[in-house]
Design brief:
about 140 residues
């Protein structure tokens, strides 16, 4: 892989469409927006991502410039995000303005409404606020504007 970032699939993850989609999304984001790699290198965090209605889950294990995607939710995740399938990609459509997720346009309002209605649930958000911000920035398909 590229020396600037390393994305790995743990055994079993290569059979999970969500894991493949996330790996491809991040690869594309880093190639199109290399400034995102800085946030990626600062992340040291385990994020559990569960798509409840599809009954699929992965853990994103960030370790300062590497990401290993595991099948299922590992014990000890600092952030746990539970979402419905149609909202997973909506998370990547949130724009970043002034270094923060921007919730005042169409995609941002959709995600904010989903959080308010509990269609997206995030455990550990307060304790890991900066990690969540960095995660949002690297997942966004938009440049940091």
């Amino acid at each position: 892989m590229n020396k600037a970032f390393e994305l790995q699939l743990a055994p079993g993850a290569e059979e999970i469409g969500l894991a493949l989609m996330l790996r491809d999304l991040l690869t594309q984001n880093f190639e199109q927006h290399p400034e995102k790699i800085r946030d990626f290198r600062q992340l040291r965090l385990q994020v559990g991502l569960m798509v409840a209605d599809a009954e699929v889950a992965v853990t994103l294990e960030f370790n300062r410039g590497t990401l290993k995607i595991h099948p299922g939710i590992l014990t000890g995740c600092q952030l746990q995000i539970t979402s419905e399938a149609d909202l997973v990609l909506a998370l990547s459509n949130v724009r970043v303005k002034w270094g923060l997720p921007y919730y005042f346009d169409g995609p941002g309002k959709e995600v904010l409404e989903a959080i308010k209605s509990r269609r997206i649930r995030i455990k550990g958000m307060v304790r890991n606020f900066y990690g969540l911000i960095r995660l949002s920035r690297i997942l966004s398909v938009h440049g940091s504007g």
